Structure formats: C-alpha cells, structure tokens
What we know:
The protein is an all-alpha fold. Helices cover 77% and strands 1% of the residues.
Amino acid sequence: MPVLLAVLSALSSAIGLVVQRDSSRAAPAGMSGSGLLRYLVRQPLWLLGQGAWVVALGLQALALHVGRLSVVQPVLVSELVFVLVIRRLVMHWPVRAAAWGSAALICVSLSLFLVAAEPRGGHPTPTASAWLWALVATGGFAGCMAVLGGRGSPVRRAAFYATAAATLGALEASFLKTATQTLSQHGLLAVFTDWPVYALAIAGAASGVLVQTALRIGPLTVSQPLLVVVNPLVSVALSVWLFGEHFTDDPATISLGVCAFLGIVAGVVLLTSTGPRQGAASGVAASGPLQ
C-alpha cells in the first residue's frame, strides 16, 4: 500500500508539474512577480496543477503514515517517468528511444532497490535528541550548500542550490510523517499545537525558493538530477536516524541495493539529458532535458 500511494503521489505531482510549467510559459513576457501571480490564478490549467499538487501532497502524507520514509521517498523518483509518459501520450511530443531506455532503467533499478533494501523495524515518533541532531546536521548542510551557491559559475551555483533544496525536501518528508502520526493519534488540534507542522511550512518555503533559484540560474541537466537523487538519499539516512529503520546486514544484498541506487542515479541523469524539451511541442524532435 505505501508503494502504491507513493506511485499515485508521483503521478499527481507529474501532472501538476507539466500543467504548471506550460501555464507559466504561456504568460506574457516581462511580467513582474505579482503580475505573473495575478495572471496565473486566472488560468484554469494552472489552478488544476495546483490541485494536482495538493492531491500529491495528501497521497505522500498517507504513504508516509502507513509506510517507511526509506521506501516512500525513493518511489517518488518515478515522477520523472510519468512526466515523460504524459509528454508523449497526452501532448504528443516525440520521445527518443534513449529517453525510454533511461525511464526503463529507472523503473528496473527502483524495483531492485526496494527489494534489496527491504527496510525493517522503526518507530513512528522520533526522540527529541534525534530531532535536534538531525536538524543541526541536515539544516547545517543545506545552509552551507545555499551559501556556496551564492558565488561561482551558473552550473556550480545551480548544483549547490539544488542540493540544498533536495536536502530540505527530505527533511520536509520527515516533518510530514511526524505530523500525520500526530493527526492519527491526537487529532487536528494537536497537529497545530506541535512544532513539526510549522517546521514543515518553513522548510517547504525555503526549499521552494531554492528550487526556483536553481532552475533559474543554471541548466536543468544539472539541477534536476540533484533534486531527484539527493532527496531519497538523505531520506534514507533520516529514516535510520529519526525513525529507527534498519536494513539487512547481508553483504550481497547490500551490494545489490547500492548498485540499484546507482542505476537510479544513472537513469535520472540520462533521462534528464535525453528527454523531450519544449521545442518538441511544435513537432520538431529534440534531445534536450525534460521540460
């Protein structure tokens, strides 16, 4: 059930991403931030994308509530595959064989990773001490990445900002899992009298700004792989640190899991490089990143 919910969340997120990107690109050039927002809120497709994002967040929350962080977050990588399918089947963008091969590599590697990892145990509520050190480590790391992103070449800056955003995204998932546990045990009022829901809002806002900054400054071929890969990697670490999840100690199985994760990384990088780009919308074959 957690895997199914995570897959549905990835599908909803992919729908929202495609719709919102296309709505934003249709806006008149030269609009200010506030003017762009006023334009977008009057666009039915953009509002549909927002609705899809809300559905995706709800499905992710359910998946995190009934499943393990180390399972749910890696599955969300499948969003890239759904974006590719939507572009081809719904929008009729031409897709190269290399892109389909990259998508297949992601799917196969993800399946192997989930089977090999086979996380066990865990508890729903982290201790105060675990939260403190996890926040110091992940928050400090994300902060350092954001500071380093303030200077250097566009590629370097995009890489640092994307890494910071993905790290905060993993932290968001931890907050979300804790908030859903509080909701199920103590009700809605308890959620708003506990700190994780507010930490979730702060981390979400900061992550959103960093994502947009990374996408604006540098090429998508740099930022998208890091955004997609660093999140589950940090999530697996947080699942052990905060929620006490653990994995098999069999060397062969661990090696298979590591190889499968590297396969996911390779698939994401290749798909970002070989997927269709905006020029394909006009019927011209293209080999740029997914957009």
